[in-house]
Amino acid sequence: MKAKAADFLIYDQATDSYRSNPEQVVRDDVEKHYWLHVGRTILKDWRLYIMLIPMLLVFLFWRYFPMYELLGCFKVSDEVLPVSQQLFSGFSYFKRLLVGGDDLSREFWRAMRNTFTLSFYGLCFGFPMPIILALFFNEIKSDIARSVYQVLTYLPKFMSTVVMTSLVVMLVKQGSLTSGMGIVSQALASLGVVSQEVANAGLLNNPAFFRPIYIISGIWEGAGYDSIVFFAAIIAISPTSYEAAQIDGAGKMAQMRYVVLPSILSTIVIMLITRIGSLLNIGYEKVLLLYNTNTYVTADVVSTFAQRYGLAGAAKGIASAAEMMNNVVGMLLVIGANTIARKASDVSLY
Amino acid sequence: MKRKLEVSELIFKIISYTLLTVFALACLYPFVYAISAAISGRSAVEYGQIVILPKAIQFDAFKRMFGDNMFWNAYSNTLFITFYGTVWALLYSILGAYALSKRRLLFRKVFNFFLVFTMWFSAGIVPQYLNYLDTKAVFNGIGITDDKWLVVIAMGMAAMNIILLRNAFEGVPSEIEEAAIVDGASEFQVLSKVYLPMSKSTIATVALFFGISRWNGYFWARQMISNANEHPLQVFIRLRLEEFTDAEAMAGWNQPYASDSVIYALIVCSIVPILIIYPFIQKYFAKGTNVGGVKE
Question: What pLDDT band is residue A290 in, cutting at 50, 70 and 90?
Answer without folding.
Answer: very high
